[in-house]
Inverse folding.
Protein backbone atom coordinates (compact mmCIF):
# COMPACT_ATOMS: atom_id res chain seq x y z
CA UNK A 1 0.00 0.00 0.00
CA UNK A 2 1.44 3.33 -1.03
CA UNK A 3 0.84 5.93 1.64
CA UNK A 4 -0.40 9.12 0.08
CA UNK A 5 1.16 11.11 2.88
CA UNK A 6 4.85 10.29 2.62
CA UNK A 7 5.36 11.37 6.22
CA UNK A 8 2.70 9.10 7.75
CA UNK A 9 4.36 6.35 9.75
CA UNK A 10 3.22 2.78 10.15
CA UNK A 11 1.74 2.29 13.58
CA UNK A 12 3.91 -0.27 15.37
CA UNK A 13 3.57 -2.16 18.65
CA UNK A 14 6.57 -3.01 20.76
CA UNK A 15 6.61 -6.79 21.04
CA UNK A 16 9.87 -7.28 22.88
CA UNK A 17 12.54 -5.17 24.56
CA UNK A 18 16.10 -6.36 25.13
CA UNK A 19 18.58 -4.49 27.26
CA UNK A 20 21.83 -4.75 25.33
CA UNK A 21 24.25 -2.54 27.22
CA UNK A 22 24.05 0.55 29.44
CA UNK A 23 21.59 2.91 27.71
CA UNK A 24 21.30 0.59 24.71
CA UNK A 25 18.07 -1.27 23.95
CA UNK A 26 16.66 -3.36 21.15
CA UNK A 27 12.97 -3.12 20.28
CA UNK A 28 11.13 -5.76 18.29
CA UNK A 29 8.30 -3.98 16.49
CA UNK A 30 5.20 -5.55 14.99
CA UNK A 31 2.74 -3.86 12.67
CA UNK A 32 -0.52 -2.90 14.38
CA UNK A 33 -2.37 -3.17 11.07
CA UNK A 34 -2.04 -6.74 9.68
CA UNK A 35 -2.40 -5.36 6.15
CA UNK A 36 0.73 -3.25 6.67
CA UNK A 37 2.63 -6.32 7.86
CA UNK A 38 1.63 -8.17 4.73
CA UNK A 39 2.60 -5.40 2.34
CA UNK A 40 5.81 -4.38 4.04
CA UNK A 41 9.13 -5.58 2.76
CA UNK A 42 12.69 -4.36 3.06
CA UNK A 43 16.20 -5.48 2.29
CA UNK A 44 19.22 -5.58 4.53
CA UNK A 45 21.05 -2.26 4.70
CA UNK A 46 17.96 -0.09 4.72
CA UNK A 47 16.90 2.24 7.51
CA UNK A 48 13.82 4.04 8.78
CA UNK A 49 12.47 6.92 10.83
CA UNK A 50 11.28 5.73 14.23
CA UNK A 51 8.99 8.03 16.17
CA UNK A 52 7.60 8.60 19.60
CA UNK A 53 4.28 10.40 19.19
CA UNK A 54 4.67 13.76 20.82
CA UNK A 55 8.45 13.81 20.75
CA UNK A 56 9.54 13.32 17.17
CA UNK A 57 11.48 11.04 14.89
CA UNK A 58 14.92 9.46 15.01
CA UNK A 59 16.86 7.69 12.28
CA UNK A 60 18.17 4.14 12.81
CA UNK A 61 18.92 1.21 10.60
CA UNK A 62 16.68 -1.83 10.56
CA UNK A 63 18.74 -4.13 12.75
CA UNK A 64 16.93 -7.36 11.89
CA UNK A 65 17.50 -9.35 8.68
CA UNK A 66 14.99 -9.30 5.83
CA UNK A 67 15.03 -13.08 5.95
CA UNK A 68 12.87 -12.90 9.08
CA UNK A 69 9.39 -11.62 8.33
CA UNK A 70 6.58 -10.15 10.36
CA UNK A 71 8.62 -7.81 12.47
CA UNK A 72 11.53 -5.40 12.40
CA UNK A 73 14.03 -4.63 15.10
CA UNK A 74 15.93 -1.50 15.96
CA UNK A 75 18.73 -0.95 18.43
CA UNK A 76 19.41 2.51 19.80
CA UNK A 77 21.42 4.27 22.43
CA UNK A 78 19.56 6.65 24.70
CA UNK A 79 21.20 9.95 23.84
CA UNK A 80 18.74 12.69 22.91
CA UNK A 81 15.15 13.78 23.16
CA UNK A 82 13.54 11.09 21.03
CA UNK A 83 15.75 8.20 22.12
CA UNK A 84 15.26 9.31 25.72
CA UNK A 85 11.50 8.96 25.32
CA UNK A 86 11.85 5.73 23.33
CA UNK A 87 13.78 4.24 26.21
CA UNK A 88 10.85 4.86 28.54
CA UNK A 89 8.39 2.90 26.37
CA UNK A 90 7.28 -0.57 27.42
CA UNK A 91 6.22 -3.78 25.73
CA UNK A 92 2.76 -3.21 24.22
CA UNK A 93 3.25 0.51 23.67
CA UNK A 94 2.72 2.07 20.26
CA UNK A 95 5.28 3.95 18.23
CA UNK A 96 5.74 4.99 14.61
CA UNK A 97 7.97 3.72 11.85
CA UNK A 98 8.50 5.18 8.38
CA UNK A 99 10.51 3.27 5.84
CA UNK A 100 12.25 1.38 4.54
CA UNK A 101 14.56 3.97 3.00
CA UNK A 102 17.88 3.90 1.21
CA UNK A 103 19.83 1.33 -0.73
CA UNK A 104 20.88 -2.16 0.26
CA UNK A 105 23.87 -4.36 0.91
CA UNK A 106 24.46 -6.22 -2.39
CA UNK A 107 24.43 -9.66 -0.74
CA UNK A 108 23.41 -11.32 -4.02
CA UNK A 109 26.73 -10.23 -5.50
CA UNK A 110 28.61 -11.68 -2.55
CA UNK A 111 27.47 -15.26 -3.14
CA UNK A 112 30.38 -17.71 -3.18
CA UNK A 113 32.70 -15.33 -1.36
CA UNK A 114 34.26 -15.13 2.08
CA UNK A 115 32.78 -12.42 4.27
CA UNK A 116 34.67 -10.36 6.81
CA UNK A 117 32.48 -8.21 9.05
CA UNK A 118 34.23 -5.48 11.05
CA UNK A 119 32.14 -3.45 13.50
CA UNK A 120 32.71 -1.12 16.39
CA UNK A 121 30.46 -0.12 19.29
CA UNK A 122 26.87 0.82 18.49
CA UNK A 123 27.57 0.21 14.78
CA UNK A 124 26.98 -3.51 15.15
CA UNK A 125 23.18 -3.11 14.62
CA UNK A 126 23.33 -2.34 10.86
CA UNK A 127 25.91 -5.10 10.57
CA UNK A 128 23.76 -7.52 12.54
CA UNK A 129 21.06 -7.25 9.87
CA UNK A 130 23.41 -8.26 7.10
CA UNK A 131 25.22 -10.87 9.25
CA UNK A 132 21.97 -12.69 10.00
CA UNK A 133 20.85 -12.31 6.38
CA UNK A 134 24.01 -14.14 5.34
CA UNK A 135 23.85 -16.70 8.17
CA UNK A 136 20.19 -17.45 7.34
CA UNK A 137 21.37 -18.36 3.85
CA UNK A 138 24.70 -19.69 5.03
CA UNK A 139 25.12 -22.12 2.12
CA UNK A 140 25.60 -19.17 -0.25
CA UNK A 141 28.83 -18.01 1.33
CA UNK A 142 32.27 -19.41 2.17
CA UNK A 143 34.09 -18.41 5.38
CA UNK A 144 32.29 -15.93 7.63
CA UNK A 145 34.46 -13.94 10.03
CA UNK A 146 33.14 -11.31 12.44
CA UNK A 147 35.39 -8.86 14.26
CA UNK A 148 33.55 -6.77 16.80
CA UNK A 149 34.97 -4.29 19.27
CA UNK A 150 33.55 -1.98 21.92
CA UNK A 151 34.89 0.38 24.55
CA UNK A 152 34.38 -2.08 27.36
CA UNK A 153 32.96 -5.54 27.98
CA UNK A 154 29.82 -3.91 29.29
CA UNK A 155 29.37 -1.92 26.07
CA UNK A 156 29.28 -4.96 23.77
CA UNK A 157 25.79 -5.23 22.31
CA UNK A 158 23.91 -8.41 21.35
CA UNK A 159 25.77 -10.43 24.00
CA UNK A 160 23.52 -13.47 23.49
CA UNK A 161 24.04 -13.43 19.77
CA UNK A 162 27.79 -13.01 20.14
CA UNK A 163 27.70 -16.17 22.23
CA UNK A 164 25.64 -17.92 19.56
CA UNK A 165 28.05 -16.88 16.81
CA UNK A 166 31.00 -17.94 18.93
CA UNK A 167 29.53 -21.41 19.33
CA UNK A 168 28.73 -21.87 15.65
CA UNK A 169 31.35 -23.94 13.85
CA UNK A 170 30.66 -22.06 10.59
CA UNK A 171 31.43 -18.60 12.03
CA UNK A 172 34.73 -17.24 13.26
CA UNK A 173 34.06 -14.55 15.86
CA UNK A 174 36.73 -12.26 17.29
CA UNK A 175 35.67 -9.80 19.97
CA UNK A 176 37.83 -7.08 21.41
CA UNK A 177 37.57 -4.26 23.91
CA UNK A 178 39.59 -1.07 24.13
CA UNK A 179 42.57 -1.25 26.51
CA UNK A 180 41.23 -0.69 30.01
CA UNK A 181 37.77 -1.90 29.06
CA UNK A 182 38.46 -5.53 29.91
CA UNK A 183 37.29 -7.40 33.02
CA UNK A 184 39.23 -10.16 34.86
CA UNK A 185 36.99 -12.76 33.20
CA UNK A 186 37.39 -11.34 29.67
CA UNK A 187 38.61 -13.98 27.23
CA UNK A 188 38.53 -11.94 24.06
CA UNK A 189 41.12 -9.61 22.62
CA UNK A 190 42.20 -6.32 24.15
CA UNK A 191 43.02 -3.57 21.67
CA UNK A 192 41.47 -1.26 19.10
CA UNK A 193 39.68 -2.80 16.14
CA UNK A 194 42.26 -1.76 13.48
CA UNK A 195 45.14 -3.24 15.51
CA UNK A 196 43.31 -6.48 16.16
CA UNK A 197 42.37 -6.68 12.49
CA UNK A 198 46.01 -6.19 11.49
CA UNK A 199 47.05 -9.07 13.79
CA UNK A 200 44.41 -11.30 12.21
CA UNK A 201 46.19 -10.96 8.84
CA UNK A 202 42.96 -10.95 6.81
CA UNK A 203 43.20 -12.71 3.48
CA UNK A 204 41.72 -10.59 0.67
CA UNK A 205 41.32 -13.44 -1.75
CA UNK A 206 37.69 -13.83 -2.83
CA UNK A 207 36.69 -11.84 0.27
CA UNK A 208 34.33 -8.94 0.89
CA UNK A 209 34.97 -6.76 3.94
CA UNK A 210 32.05 -4.90 5.47
CA UNK A 211 33.11 -2.16 7.86
CA UNK A 212 30.85 -0.19 10.14
CA UNK A 213 31.80 1.91 13.11
CA UNK A 214 32.50 5.39 14.38
CA UNK A 215 34.33 7.62 11.86
CA UNK A 216 37.65 7.26 13.68
CA UNK A 217 37.48 3.46 13.55
CA UNK A 218 36.66 3.48 9.85
CA UNK A 219 39.49 5.92 9.20
CA UNK A 220 42.08 3.58 10.74
CA UNK A 221 40.53 0.32 9.50
CA UNK A 222 40.66 1.11 5.77
CA UNK A 223 44.48 1.40 5.67
CA UNK A 224 44.79 -1.96 7.43
CA UNK A 225 42.57 -3.59 4.81
CA UNK A 226 44.46 -1.82 2.05
CA UNK A 227 47.77 -3.08 3.45
CA UNK A 228 46.36 -6.61 3.55
CA UNK A 229 45.60 -6.32 -0.16
CA UNK A 230 41.88 -5.53 -0.18
CA UNK A 231 40.83 -3.53 -3.23
CA UNK A 232 38.36 -0.67 -2.90
CA UNK A 233 35.57 -2.63 -4.56
CA UNK A 234 35.97 -5.38 -1.93
CA UNK A 235 35.17 -2.99 0.94
CA UNK A 236 31.70 -1.81 1.94
CA UNK A 237 30.47 0.48 4.66
CA UNK A 238 27.23 2.13 5.71
CA UNK A 239 27.18 5.85 6.47
CA UNK A 240 25.06 7.80 8.87
CA UNK A 241 24.25 11.49 8.75
CA UNK A 242 21.61 13.52 10.48
CA UNK A 243 18.33 13.08 8.62
CA UNK A 244 14.77 14.28 8.89
CA UNK A 245 12.77 13.13 5.88
CA UNK A 246 14.66 10.07 4.65
CA UNK A 247 13.41 10.94 1.16
CA UNK A 248 16.06 13.25 -0.26
CA UNK A 249 14.07 16.41 0.34
CA UNK A 250 14.95 17.97 3.69
CA UNK A 251 18.48 18.76 2.56
CA UNK A 252 20.81 17.83 5.42
CA UNK A 253 22.27 14.35 4.97
CA UNK A 254 24.06 15.01 1.70
CA UNK A 255 27.77 14.33 1.32
CA UNK A 256 28.58 16.54 -1.64
CA UNK A 257 25.95 15.74 -4.25
CA UNK A 258 25.14 12.36 -2.76
CA UNK A 259 22.18 11.97 -0.41
CA UNK A 260 22.97 9.37 2.26
CA UNK A 261 19.23 8.71 2.62
CA UNK A 262 18.58 8.03 -1.06
CA UNK A 263 21.89 7.12 -2.68
CA UNK A 264 23.18 5.39 0.47
CA UNK A 265 23.50 4.51 3.27
CA UNK A 266 25.53 1.59 1.83
CA UNK A 267 28.65 2.60 -0.10
CA UNK A 268 31.57 0.66 -1.48
CA UNK A 269 34.95 2.16 -0.78
CA UNK A 270 35.22 2.93 -4.50
CA UNK A 271 32.12 5.12 -4.17
CA UNK A 272 33.30 6.52 -0.87
CA UNK A 273 36.54 7.74 -2.38
CA UNK A 274 34.60 9.85 -4.88
CA UNK A 275 32.79 11.65 -2.07
CA UNK A 276 34.13 14.83 -0.51
CA UNK A 277 35.05 14.85 3.17
CA UNK A 278 31.65 15.85 4.49
CA UNK A 279 30.51 12.96 6.71
CA UNK B 1 -0.73 26.49 -24.94
CA UNK B 2 0.01 29.36 -27.29
CA UNK B 3 -0.13 32.62 -25.27
CA UNK B 4 -3.09 34.90 -25.91
CA UNK B 5 -2.06 38.55 -26.09
CA UNK B 6 -4.49 41.30 -25.09
CA UNK B 7 -4.47 44.94 -24.01
CA UNK B 8 -6.24 46.43 -21.01
CA UNK B 9 -6.62 49.92 -19.58
CA UNK B 10 -4.63 50.29 -16.34
CA UNK B 11 -7.70 51.94 -14.83
CA UNK B 12 -9.52 48.62 -15.20
CA UNK B 13 -7.25 46.89 -12.69
CA UNK B 14 -9.52 47.79 -9.78
CA UNK B 15 -12.47 46.16 -11.53
CA UNK B 16 -10.40 43.10 -12.30
CA UNK B 17 -9.38 42.76 -8.67
CA UNK B 18 -13.03 43.10 -7.60
CA UNK B 19 -14.07 40.36 -10.00
CA UNK B 20 -11.23 38.09 -8.95
CA UNK B 21 -11.95 38.69 -5.29
CA UNK B 22 -15.62 37.82 -5.87
CA UNK B 23 -14.68 34.49 -7.37
CA UNK B 24 -11.54 33.73 -5.33
CA UNK B 25 -11.77 35.08 -1.76
CA UNK B 26 -8.19 34.01 -1.09
CA UNK B 27 -6.62 36.73 -3.20
CA UNK B 28 -3.09 37.58 -2.18
CA UNK B 29 -1.32 40.74 -3.32
CA UNK B 30 1.59 42.90 -2.19
CA UNK B 31 0.64 45.15 0.72
CA UNK B 32 2.80 47.95 2.16
CA UNK B 33 3.71 47.49 5.83
CA UNK B 34 5.86 50.49 6.66
CA UNK B 35 9.12 49.75 4.84
CA UNK B 36 8.15 46.15 4.12
CA UNK B 37 5.97 44.78 1.35
CA UNK B 38 4.13 41.66 2.44
CA UNK B 39 2.05 39.26 0.41
CA UNK B 40 -1.34 39.21 2.14
CA UNK B 41 -5.00 38.51 1.53
CA UNK B 42 -6.50 41.80 0.42
CA UNK B 43 -10.02 43.13 0.81
CA UNK B 44 -9.93 45.26 -2.29
CA UNK B 45 -7.79 47.02 -4.84
CA UNK B 46 -6.93 49.90 -2.49
CA UNK B 47 -5.01 47.53 -0.20
CA UNK B 48 -2.50 46.74 -2.93
CA UNK B 49 0.87 48.50 -2.71
CA UNK B 50 1.08 51.15 -5.42
CA UNK B 51 4.78 51.18 -5.90
CA UNK B 52 6.93 48.20 -5.00
CA UNK B 53 9.96 46.42 -6.34
CA UNK B 54 8.99 43.01 -5.01
CA UNK B 55 7.59 41.53 -1.83
CA UNK B 56 10.08 41.47 1.07
CA UNK B 57 9.55 37.74 1.53
CA UNK B 58 9.21 35.33 -1.34
CA UNK B 59 5.84 33.83 -2.21
CA UNK B 60 6.88 30.24 -1.48
CA UNK B 61 4.87 30.20 1.75
CA UNK B 62 1.68 29.78 -0.29
CA UNK B 63 2.76 26.27 -1.37
CA UNK B 64 5.36 25.58 1.30
CA UNK B 65 4.15 27.27 4.50
CA UNK B 66 6.60 28.04 7.26
CA UNK B 67 4.75 25.50 9.40
CA UNK B 68 2.86 22.61 7.79
CA UNK B 69 1.04 20.03 9.88
CA UNK B 70 1.91 16.66 8.35
CA UNK B 71 0.36 14.38 10.98
CA UNK B 72 -2.32 14.61 13.67
CA UNK B 73 -2.62 12.26 16.58
CA UNK B 74 -4.34 11.72 19.88
CA UNK B 75 -2.29 10.45 22.79
CA UNK B 76 -3.73 8.08 25.33
CA UNK B 77 -1.53 5.54 26.94
CA UNK B 78 -2.05 2.31 25.06
CA UNK B 79 -4.30 3.89 22.46
CA UNK B 80 -2.65 6.27 20.05
CA UNK B 81 -4.64 7.23 16.97
CA UNK B 82 -3.01 8.98 14.05
CA UNK B 83 -4.46 10.73 11.06
CA UNK B 84 -2.99 12.43 8.03
CA UNK B 85 -4.30 15.95 7.42
CA UNK B 86 -6.66 16.23 4.46
CA UNK B 87 -4.86 17.70 1.48
CA UNK B 88 -7.79 17.50 -0.93
CA UNK B 89 -9.48 20.71 0.14
CA UNK B 90 -6.82 23.38 0.06
CA UNK B 91 -8.57 26.53 -1.22
CA UNK B 92 -7.95 28.00 -4.64
CA UNK B 93 -5.63 30.93 -4.13
CA UNK B 94 -4.78 33.81 -6.44
CA UNK B 95 -1.35 35.44 -6.24
CA UNK B 96 -1.85 38.83 -7.84
CA UNK B 97 0.97 41.17 -8.70
CA UNK B 98 3.89 38.96 -7.79
CA UNK B 99 7.12 39.24 -9.75
CA UNK B 100 8.36 36.88 -12.47
CA UNK B 101 11.27 35.68 -10.28
CA UNK B 102 8.78 34.49 -7.67
CA UNK B 103 6.57 32.75 -10.23
CA UNK B 104 9.53 30.90 -11.74
CA UNK B 105 10.83 30.07 -8.25
CA UNK B 106 8.20 27.36 -7.99
CA UNK B 107 10.16 25.40 -10.60
CA UNK B 108 12.86 24.60 -8.02
CA UNK B 109 10.37 23.83 -5.26
CA UNK B 110 8.40 21.55 -7.57
CA UNK B 111 11.55 19.69 -8.60
CA UNK B 112 12.41 19.06 -4.95
CA UNK B 113 8.97 18.28 -3.53
CA UNK B 114 7.29 16.57 -6.48
CA UNK B 115 10.28 14.34 -7.34
CA UNK B 116 10.12 10.56 -7.16
CA UNK B 117 8.04 10.54 -3.95
CA UNK B 118 5.72 13.54 -4.17
CA UNK B 119 5.07 15.60 -1.08
CA UNK B 120 1.28 15.73 -1.10
CA UNK B 121 1.15 18.92 0.95
CA UNK B 122 3.26 20.97 -1.45
CA UNK B 123 1.74 19.35 -4.52
CA UNK B 124 -1.86 19.99 -3.47
CA UNK B 125 -1.21 23.56 -2.41
CA UNK B 126 0.71 24.40 -5.57
CA UNK B 127 -2.00 22.94 -7.81
CA UNK B 128 -4.49 25.36 -6.27
CA UNK B 129 -2.41 28.46 -7.03
CA UNK B 130 -3.41 30.87 -9.77
CA UNK B 131 -0.42 33.05 -10.52
CA UNK B 132 -0.92 36.49 -12.01
CA UNK B 133 2.45 38.18 -12.24
CA UNK B 134 3.46 41.72 -13.11
CA UNK B 135 6.54 42.11 -15.28
CA UNK B 136 9.18 44.38 -13.77
CA UNK B 137 9.55 47.87 -15.13
CA UNK B 138 12.18 48.67 -12.55
CA UNK B 139 14.94 46.84 -10.72
CA UNK B 140 17.54 47.61 -8.09
CA UNK B 141 21.24 46.86 -7.68
CA UNK B 142 20.52 43.54 -5.97
CA UNK B 143 18.50 42.14 -8.90
CA UNK B 144 20.32 39.71 -11.19
CA UNK B 145 17.60 37.53 -12.74
CA UNK B 146 19.13 37.89 -16.20
CA UNK B 147 22.34 36.22 -14.95
CA UNK B 148 20.54 33.04 -13.90
CA UNK B 149 18.35 32.50 -16.93
CA UNK B 150 15.41 34.74 -16.01
CA UNK B 151 14.37 38.19 -17.14
CA UNK B 152 12.09 40.99 -15.94
CA UNK B 153 9.35 39.73 -18.26
CA UNK B 154 9.86 35.99 -17.76
CA UNK B 155 6.49 34.28 -18.05
CA UNK B 156 7.57 30.90 -16.68
CA UNK B 157 5.36 29.77 -13.82
CA UNK B 158 2.73 32.48 -14.44
CA UNK B 159 -0.81 31.83 -15.58
CA UNK B 160 -1.29 35.43 -16.62
CA UNK B 161 1.26 38.23 -16.86
CA UNK B 162 0.61 41.96 -16.96
CA UNK B 163 3.19 44.40 -18.34
CA UNK B 164 2.66 48.17 -18.04
CA UNK B 165 3.05 49.79 -21.45
CA UNK B 166 2.29 53.25 -22.86
CA UNK B 167 -0.91 55.30 -22.63
CA UNK B 168 -1.96 53.92 -19.25
CA UNK B 169 -2.40 50.53 -20.79
CA UNK B 170 -1.14 47.10 -19.89
CA UNK B 171 -0.14 44.18 -22.01
CA UNK B 172 -1.93 41.00 -20.87
CA UNK B 173 -0.41 37.61 -21.67
CA UNK B 174 -2.72 34.70 -20.96
CA UNK B 175 -0.33 31.79 -20.67
CA UNK B 176 -2.11 28.69 -19.42
CA UNK B 177 -5.53 27.03 -19.54
CA UNK B 178 -5.90 27.96 -15.88
CA UNK B 179 -5.09 31.56 -16.81
CA UNK B 180 -7.61 31.47 -19.63
CA UNK B 181 -10.39 30.36 -17.29
CA UNK B 182 -9.51 33.19 -14.90
CA UNK B 183 -9.27 35.77 -17.68
CA UNK B 184 -12.80 34.85 -18.75
CA UNK B 185 -13.94 36.66 -15.59
CA UNK B 186 -12.79 39.97 -17.08
CA UNK B 187 -12.78 39.25 -20.80
CA UNK B 188 -15.10 42.22 -21.38
CA UNK B 189 -12.27 44.53 -20.28
CA UNK B 190 -9.72 43.03 -22.64
CA UNK B 191 -9.19 44.37 -26.11
CA UNK B 192 -7.25 42.92 -28.99
CA UNK B 193 -3.75 44.07 -29.83
CA UNK B 194 -3.95 46.16 -33.01
CA UNK B 195 -0.24 45.96 -33.63
CA UNK B 196 2.55 43.90 -32.05
CA UNK B 197 3.82 45.35 -28.77
CA UNK B 198 7.55 45.35 -28.13
CA UNK B 199 7.34 44.07 -24.56
CA UNK B 200 11.12 44.25 -24.08
CA UNK B 201 11.05 48.01 -24.48
CA UNK B 202 8.96 48.37 -21.34
CA UNK B 203 10.96 46.08 -19.07
CA UNK B 204 13.55 47.04 -16.49
CA UNK B 205 17.14 46.91 -17.58
CA UNK B 206 18.88 44.20 -15.56
CA UNK B 207 22.41 43.74 -16.90
CA UNK B 208 23.90 40.26 -17.07
CA UNK B 209 26.79 40.20 -14.57
CA UNK B 210 28.07 36.65 -14.92
CA UNK B 211 27.77 33.53 -17.03
CA UNK B 212 25.72 31.05 -15.02
CA UNK B 213 27.40 28.08 -16.71
CA UNK B 214 30.76 29.36 -15.49
CA UNK B 215 29.32 29.60 -11.98
CA UNK B 216 28.01 26.03 -12.24
CA UNK B 217 31.33 24.67 -13.54
CA UNK B 218 33.47 26.58 -11.07
CA UNK B 219 31.27 25.86 -8.06
CA UNK B 220 31.36 22.17 -8.88
CA UNK B 221 35.15 22.27 -9.10
CA UNK B 222 35.68 24.35 -5.96
CA UNK B 223 34.52 22.04 -3.18
CA UNK B 224 38.01 21.83 -1.71
CA UNK B 225 38.84 25.51 -2.25
CA UNK B 226 38.62 26.19 1.49
CA UNK B 227 39.96 29.76 1.24
CA UNK B 228 37.25 30.73 -1.24
CA UNK B 229 34.47 29.67 1.11
CA UNK B 230 36.18 31.09 4.18
CA UNK B 231 36.77 34.47 2.53
CA UNK B 232 33.21 34.71 1.28
CA UNK B 233 31.62 33.70 4.57
CA UNK B 234 33.93 35.25 7.17
CA UNK B 235 31.26 37.67 8.30
CA UNK B 236 28.34 35.22 8.00
CA UNK B 237 26.63 34.93 11.39
CA UNK B 238 24.55 31.88 10.40
CA UNK B 239 21.21 33.57 10.98
CA UNK B 240 19.46 31.82 8.09
CA UNK B 241 17.63 34.95 6.91
CA UNK B 242 18.83 34.28 3.35
CA UNK B 243 17.12 30.89 3.31
CA UNK B 244 13.88 32.17 4.81
CA UNK B 245 13.40 34.93 2.22
CA UNK B 246 14.57 32.76 -0.69
CA UNK B 247 11.92 31.68 -3.23
CA UNK B 248 13.69 28.35 -3.87
CA UNK B 249 15.16 27.28 -0.50
CA UNK B 250 13.22 24.21 0.56
CA UNK B 251 15.22 22.58 3.36
CA UNK B 252 13.03 21.67 6.29
CA UNK B 253 12.91 20.22 9.76
CA UNK B 254 10.34 17.85 11.27
CA UNK B 255 9.27 18.39 14.87
CA UNK B 256 6.46 17.22 17.15
CA UNK B 257 4.26 19.38 19.34
CA UNK B 258 1.90 17.97 21.95
CA UNK B 259 -0.16 18.84 24.99
CA UNK B 260 -0.32 15.34 26.57
CA UNK B 261 -3.72 14.61 25.00
CA UNK B 262 -3.04 15.32 21.39
CA UNK B 263 -0.22 16.35 19.17
CA UNK B 264 0.93 17.07 15.69
CA UNK B 265 3.99 16.48 13.60
CA UNK B 266 5.11 19.62 11.82
CA UNK B 267 7.26 20.31 8.80
CA UNK B 268 9.12 23.57 9.39
CA UNK B 269 11.42 25.81 7.40
CA UNK B 270 15.06 25.21 8.20
CA UNK B 271 18.37 26.46 6.84
CA UNK B 272 21.69 24.89 5.93
CA UNK B 273 23.25 28.03 7.44
CA UNK B 274 22.30 26.99 10.97
CA UNK B 275 25.05 25.28 12.94
CA UNK B 276 22.60 22.69 14.31
CA UNK B 277 21.35 21.69 10.87
CA UNK B 278 23.69 18.73 10.44
CA UNK B 279 24.81 18.22 14.05
CA UNK B 280 24.81 14.54 15.08
CA UNK B 281 23.68 13.49 18.54
CA UNK B 282 27.23 12.32 19.17
CA UNK B 283 28.51 15.88 18.81
CA UNK B 284 30.07 15.18 15.43
CA UNK B 285 29.11 17.74 12.78
CA UNK B 286 29.93 17.06 9.12
CA UNK B 287 29.64 20.79 8.34
CA UNK B 288 31.23 22.05 11.52
CA UNK B 289 32.27 25.55 10.42
CA UNK B 290 30.30 28.36 8.81
CA UNK B 291 32.36 28.31 5.61
CA UNK B 292 31.28 24.72 5.00
CA UNK B 293 27.68 25.72 5.53
CA UNK B 294 28.04 28.63 3.10
CA UNK B 295 29.66 26.23 0.64
CA UNK B 296 26.67 23.91 1.03
CA UNK B 297 24.28 26.77 0.24
CA UNK B 298 26.04 27.65 -3.01
CA UNK B 299 26.91 24.08 -4.01
CA UNK B 300 23.32 22.99 -3.51
CA UNK B 301 21.93 25.77 -5.68
CA UNK B 302 24.62 25.93 -8.34
CA UNK B 303 26.04 22.41 -8.53
CA UNK B 304 23.84 19.68 -7.01
CA UNK B 305 20.46 20.99 -8.19
CA UNK B 306 21.58 21.70 -11.77
CA UNK B 307 23.08 18.23 -12.00
CA UNK B 308 20.34 16.23 -10.31
CA UNK B 309 17.15 18.21 -10.84
CA UNK B 310 18.15 20.11 -14.00
CA UNK B 311 17.30 23.44 -12.39
CA UNK B 312 19.46 26.23 -11.03
CA UNK B 313 18.32 26.83 -7.46
CA UNK B 314 18.40 30.62 -7.78
CA UNK B 315 16.09 33.13 -9.45
CA UNK B 316 18.33 36.17 -9.03
CA UNK B 317 15.71 38.04 -6.97
CA UNK B 318 18.44 39.33 -4.65
CA UNK B 319 16.31 38.92 -1.51
CA UNK B 320 19.09 37.09 0.37
CA UNK B 321 21.41 40.05 -0.17
CA UNK B 322 18.78 42.59 0.84
CA UNK B 323 17.94 40.61 3.99
CA UNK B 324 21.49 39.85 5.05
CA UNK B 325 22.30 41.63 8.31
CA UNK B 326 26.04 41.60 7.53
CA UNK B 327 25.60 42.68 3.92
CA UNK B 328 26.81 39.60 2.09
CA UNK B 329 25.93 40.11 -1.56
CA UNK B 330 25.32 36.87 -3.43
CA UNK B 331 25.68 38.59 -6.80
CA UNK B 332 29.24 39.62 -5.95
CA UNK B 333 30.10 36.19 -4.55
CA UNK B 334 28.79 34.47 -7.68
CA UNK B 335 30.68 36.90 -9.87
CA UNK B 336 33.85 36.04 -7.97
CA UNK B 337 33.22 32.34 -8.56
CA UNK B 338 32.48 32.92 -12.25
CA UNK B 339 35.83 34.68 -12.58
CA UNK B 340 37.89 31.98 -10.84
Amino acid sequence: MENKNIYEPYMMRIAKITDEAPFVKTFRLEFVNPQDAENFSFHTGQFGEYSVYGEGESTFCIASPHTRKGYIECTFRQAGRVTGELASLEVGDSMGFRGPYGNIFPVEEWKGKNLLFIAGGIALPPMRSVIWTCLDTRENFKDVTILYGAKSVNDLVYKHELKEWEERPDVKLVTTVDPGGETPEWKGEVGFVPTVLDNMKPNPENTIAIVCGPPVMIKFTFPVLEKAGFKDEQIYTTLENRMKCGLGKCGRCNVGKVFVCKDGPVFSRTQLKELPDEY
Amino acid sequence: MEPIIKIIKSASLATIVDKLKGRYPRLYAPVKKQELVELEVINGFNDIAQDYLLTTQSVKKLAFPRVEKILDYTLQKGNIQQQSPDTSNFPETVLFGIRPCDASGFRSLTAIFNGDKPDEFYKSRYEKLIIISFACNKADAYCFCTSVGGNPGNTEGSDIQFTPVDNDEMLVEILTEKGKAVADLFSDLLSDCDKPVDKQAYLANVPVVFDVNKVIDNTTKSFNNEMLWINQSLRCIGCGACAFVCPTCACFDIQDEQNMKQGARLRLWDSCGFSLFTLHTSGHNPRHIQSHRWRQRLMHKFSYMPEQLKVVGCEGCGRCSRACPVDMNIKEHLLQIAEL
The first strand of chain B starts at residue 4 and ends at 9. Chain B has a mean pLDDT of 95. The two ends of chain B are 41 Å apart (CA to CA). Chain B has ten helices and twelve strands.
